């Protein structure tokens, strides 16, 4: 439990919600103080099971990384699926070479690599350009996309006039 708490600093709110702690990531504490609190029950239950009403401060903005939310629990996998989510132009030469070594040449392309220390080091070097998924996460995301694209029953509209109350005039 202590390892999960190392990433967060607990602050108490003043006023009406003084009994509920708020979790701030310690490395982003100043920027998150300006953002509004949002309730995240799954993270709060895993971090602090004794407090049911914990609020987690998180950034609310669009990002290329938001499309890759884990649909399954994160577990160790022998293969990693690496997707380039930011473009190559404007990046450092060393990072471009790293992406070329990973065979990531175009944005939104996914490659599968073995989970080795070499590959993990390359990912660490270009971590702001890529998204990493395990095999289970990748398969769950593809299954979710396929179910979203699958055929659904058609919408049927009935344009007959609504039978209102019959008036005897």
TrEMBL record:
Gene Ontology BP terms: translation
Gene3D superfamilies xrefs: Ribosomal protein L30, ferredoxin-like fold domain (3.30.1390.20)
Top-rank lineage group of the source organism: Eukaryota
MF terms in GO: structural constituent of ribosome
UniProt keywords, alphabetically: Ribonucleoprotein, Ribosomal protein
InterPro entries tied to this protein: Ribo_uL30_ferredoxin-like_sf, Ribosomal_uL30_bac-type, Ribosomal_uL30_ferredoxin-like
Domain Large ribosomal subunit protein uL30-like ferredoxin-like fold as annotated: residue spans: 81-130
Segments for region (Disordered): 142-169
The keyword RNA-binding is annotated on this UniProt entry: no
GO cellular component terms given for this protein: large ribosomal subunit; mitochondrion
Entry coiled-coil feature ranges: none
PANTHER family associated with the record: LARGE RIBOSOMAL SUBUNIT PROTEIN UL30M, MITOCHONDRIAL RIBOSOMAL PROTEIN L30
Sequence similarity: Belongs to the universal ribosomal protein uL30 family.
Protein name: Large ribosomal subunit protein uL30m
